[in-house]
């Protein structure tokens, strides 16, 4: 992947860089911001905030509930054990199995969805710099046109003291 | 937070992973020997049969099931407390959460071993799992034991994922900061984490959902453990209060275990700058509330039994009040309420030392509580011809001691491989500055002061 990026020491400079890139006509989708922590108080971290994750988890919970009900019903009616004259299938004790599998469904679906949405695990070459883990904030433009590189370099450098690097 | 502070946090919290003292190896060796002795005792029991343990008719549940209930209770330290503090956005939680979540995972693993240790033929443990058997032997899926299987499996899966998800960004940090073979291992564990805004958002949303889901699961787990008892007609077990009583006891012992773990980590890994007196102060308040709740439940349970005056229940009642089990009962009351109450209620005494003393007593008291729920009721059932006694044997004592050593061993090894305080969450905690009155500022300065 080809990319040009700047490393900033503070989130204010990173925010300024993102705004400068937008003003220079770079599309939001082409701008990546990488940091070692979420900066909730800055606008650049509010992109991609909309997510279906809560609804997907609810769907996973509903699936778990169905599996729990099906498992309880099928096992108890397929291998009926009469104990103390109690009914073979009863709702009260089966609520426990249904509840546990509902929660398990929601939890597992959440984790799988998280991994899919964030493209983890990945071995694809992506823009990254180990300086990020030392606290620097990386603002990158992915796949820039050859003619734009010098303009982008100037824009990134103008936003505070930044080291500008290229991924060939 | 400036770059220098961020680097200092990285350095401080990665130091235990980079440097290993001779004391660490000594600790691991001692704990390893105790764990091996416990495994040896279990092998001895398997070879010679359950007769070498003290469990015999009518007391078939004793030390092992006490340990099962105790460790499942301790597991409530982590995920539940961490999830609640995350949901209420308690900012002071940040250095505490991972210490707590690790306790949950290891305590659950140890606790789940006990029903297997308790079996005469442990290699048939898979009979607990509802699966179609070609010999037409089918476990009763309506049994509370099948509920245990589903509840503990769900809680263990949820807690492990709840621990692992926020570890991914820290694994990425370790990937960048470590060298050699460790770098390669952490690179695999980091799953290619970059730290994009989208990844952070999705991770935080996932943690929020997990926190919402894990709280009712944690409550259900100990309620279901209590159902193992309350679904039977044994005197003093068949009680509707058992569910909440067990859950309150579990959270109580869990917080105590967390305070002990934090105090040891603070001293051993020199984390004084991160685990402040305010953390012990706040957890001490929670512990005080749980101590009062435990006292309330114990009183409610005893009063109802005494007022009902059922002869079978009163036999168990008097055994614990004035009979053979009374020394244990009153020790429990002193450990769980009488001594911790002033230590935690008086602000001047609610120091790190005060909370550690209270927590140590509570861990002992809660183990005794589990024992006193199980053994006197089984030893004094409805008809006097079915009465019996129980005396623990060396093999049971050794296995019990070994589980405490195993918990410490697993915890020490984990703290050696992974930062025991979530680095990225700690850094996020440095972002917002709360608005305080001058008096509050003075009080905060005192509480957040680093003391060696």
Would you list the SSEs of chain A in sequence order as H and E? Answer: EHEHHEHE
Determine the fraction of residues in helical runs of chain B and give it as a percent range. Answer: over 70%
Instruction: Report on the biggest sheet of chain A.
Output: 4 strands, antiparallel
Question: What's the gyration radius of chain B in Å?
Answer: 23 Å
Mean pLDDT of chain B: 90
Largest interface: A-B, 67 and 59 residues
Provide the structure class of chain A. alpha+beta
Tell me, what's the shape of chain A? rod-shaped
The chain-level structural class of chain B is mainly alpha
Physical arrangement of strands within the biggest beta sheet of chain A: 2-3-1-4
Distance between the termini of chain B: 24 Å
Helices of chain B, by number, come to 18
Give the assembly state of these chains: heterodimer
What letter string, H or E per element, gives the SSE order of chain B?
HHHHHHHHHHHHHHHHHH
Q: What integer value in Å does the Rg of chain A equal?
A: 25 Å
Strand content of chain B: under 5%
**Averaged pLDDT of chain A:** 88
Q: Give the strand content of chain A.
A: 5-15%
Which of globular, elongated, flat, extended, rod-shaped describes the shape of chain B?
globular
> Spans of chain A with pLDDT under 50 lasting ≥5 residues?
none
How many individual helices of chain A? Answer: 4
């Amino acid at each position: 992947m080809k990319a040009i990026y700047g490393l900033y020491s503070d989130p204010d400079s990173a925010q300024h860089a993102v705004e400068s890139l937008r003003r220079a006509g770079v599309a939001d989708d082409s701008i990546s911001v990488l940091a070692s922590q979420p900066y909730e108080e800055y606008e650049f971290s509010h992109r991609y905030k909309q997510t279906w994750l809560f609804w997907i988890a609810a769907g996973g919970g509903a699936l778990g509930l169905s599996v729990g009900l099906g498992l309880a019903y099928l096992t108890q009616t397929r291998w009926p054990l009469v104990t103390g004259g109690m009914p073979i299938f009863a709702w009260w004790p089966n609520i426990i199995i249904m509840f546990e599998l509902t929660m398990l469904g929601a939890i597992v679906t959440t984790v799988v969805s998280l991994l899919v949405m964030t493209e983890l695990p990945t071995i694809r070459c992506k823009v990254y710099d180990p300086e990020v883990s030392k606290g620097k904030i990386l603002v990158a433009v992915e796949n820039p046109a050859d003619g734009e590189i010098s303009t982008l370099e100037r824009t990134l450098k103008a936003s505070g003291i930044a080291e500008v690097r290229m991924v060939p | 937070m400036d770059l220098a502070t961020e680097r200092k946090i990285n350095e401080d919290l990665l130091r235990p992973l980079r440097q290993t003292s001779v004391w660490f190896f000594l600790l691991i060796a001692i704990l390893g020997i105790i764990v091996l002795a416990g495994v040896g005792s279990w092998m001895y029991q398997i070879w010679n049969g359950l007769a070498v343990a003290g469990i015999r008719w009518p007391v078939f549940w004793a030390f092992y099931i006490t340990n099962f209930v105790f460790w499942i209770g301790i597991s409530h330290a982590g995920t539940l407390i961490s999830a609640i503090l995350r949901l209420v956005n308690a900012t002071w939680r940040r250095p505490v959460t991972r210490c707590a979540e690790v306790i949950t995972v290891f305590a659950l693993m140890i606790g789940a071993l006990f029903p297997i240790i308790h079996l005469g033929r442990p290699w048939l443990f898979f009979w607990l799992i509802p699966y179609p058997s070609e010999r037409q032997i089918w476990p009763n899926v309506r049994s509370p034991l099948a509920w245990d299987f589903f509840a503990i499996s769900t809680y263990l899966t949820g807690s492990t994922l709840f621990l692992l998800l926020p570890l991914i960004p820290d694994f990425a940090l370790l990937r960048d900061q470590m060298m050699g073979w460790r770098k390669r291992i952490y690179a695999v564990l980091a799953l290619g984490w970059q730290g994009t805004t989208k990844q952070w958002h999705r991770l935080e949303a996932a943690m929020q959902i997990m926190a919402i889901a894990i709280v009712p699961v944690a409550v259900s787990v100990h309620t279901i453990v209590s159902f193992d008892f309350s679904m039977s007609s044994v005197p003093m077990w068949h009680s509707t209060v058992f569910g909440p009583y067990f859950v309150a006891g579990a959270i109580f012992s869990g917080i105590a275990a967390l305070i002990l773990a934090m105090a040891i980590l603070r001293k051993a890994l020199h984390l004084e700058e991160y685990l402040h007196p305010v953390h012990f102060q706040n957890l001490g308040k929670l512990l005080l509330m749980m101590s009062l709740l435990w006292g309330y439940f114990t009183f409610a349970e005893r009063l109802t039994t005494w007022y009902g005056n059922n002869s079978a229940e009163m036999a168990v009642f008097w055994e614990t009040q004035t009979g053979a089990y009374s020394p244990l009962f009153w020790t429990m009351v002193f450990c769980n309420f009488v001594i911790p109450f002033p230590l935690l209620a008086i602000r001047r005494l609610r120091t790190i030392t005060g909370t550690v003393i209270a927590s140590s007593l509570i861990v002992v008291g809660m183990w005794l509580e589990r024992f006193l729920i199980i053994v006197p009721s089984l030893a004094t059932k409805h008809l006097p011809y079915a009465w019996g006694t129980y005396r623990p044997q060396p093999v049971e004592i050794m296995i019990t001691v070994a589980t405490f050593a195993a918990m410490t061993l697993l915890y020490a090894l984990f703290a050696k491989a992974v930062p025991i305080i979530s680095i990225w969450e700690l850094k996020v905690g440095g972002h917002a500055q709360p608005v305080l009155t001058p008096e509050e500022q003075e009080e905060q300065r005192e509480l957040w002061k680093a003391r060696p």
